[in-house]
Design goal:
The protein has two domains: 108 residues, Serine Threonine Protein Phosphatase 5, Tetratricopeptide repeat, CATH 1.25.40.10; 68 residues, no CATH class. The chain has eleven helices and no strands. The chain has 239 residues and is mainly alpha-helical.
Amino acid sequence: MKTEPDNASGGSIDGNTGGRTAGLKPVAFLSGFSTITELSTNESIVRFVTAALFSLFFTTVQAGDFEDGWDAVQRQDYATALTKWRSAAQQGLFGVQYGLGVMYYEGQGVAQDYKEAVHWYQGAAQQGYAEAQFNLGVMYQKGRGVIQDYKEAVRWYQSAAKQNHYSAQSNLGVMYYEAKGVPQDYVRAHLWFNIAAAGGDSNSTRNRDIAARNMSSQQVEQAQRMARECMSSNFTKCD
C-alpha cells in the first residue's frame, strides 16, 4: 500500500525541499495526477504556425504551399488550406505535418479523425519534432486512433522529454509512477517530475512531492542526483 507520511517532501534538484500537498489532485488525463493531456486549440494553432515557419528555414520548395494555405485559413477556406498543406506535408515539411495532425485531432476545418491525426503526428515525430512526439505519446496512451500501447507511449514521451519538453517529462514521470509501459519506479518518476518542475511546471512540483511520500530519503537523494546528471548531460545520461 502506498503511504503518505506527513513529514515527507519531494526535494528539488538542487536539494531544497519542495512543498507538501494534502493528496492527489484528480484530473481527466491520468487518475490521481495533475498532467497536461493535449494542447488547447489556441495553443495548437500558435505552435503549428511557429513550427511550420521554423521548418521553412530548411526548405523553400514548400513555402508557397504553406503561405497559400495560411491565406486560405484567413478566408476560412479550409478545403483549400488542407489541399495546400497536405501537399507540403507529403513533401516532408514537419511543421505542416504536425499542423495537419492538430487539425484532424481537433476537427478544425475537417471531420475529426484520430487515425489521420496519428498519421501526421507520426511524420513530424519521426523527424524529431518534440510537440508531435508528445502528442503521439498521448495518442498511444489514450488509445486514440491507435491500439492503446503504453510502451509506445513511453517511447515517444522519452523522445520528447529528452528535448526538454515539460509536458512529456511530466507524463513520463506518471508512467513510471503508475507502472504503465515500464516497471514501477518511484526514483525515475521523481527524476522526471523534478526536471519538469525545474522548468516551471507546477503540476510536476505537486507530483514530485506525492511520489516522494512513497520513497525513502536515500531514494529521493538518488533521484535528485540522477536529475542533475540528466540535465547537465543535456539529457544524454538519464537512465
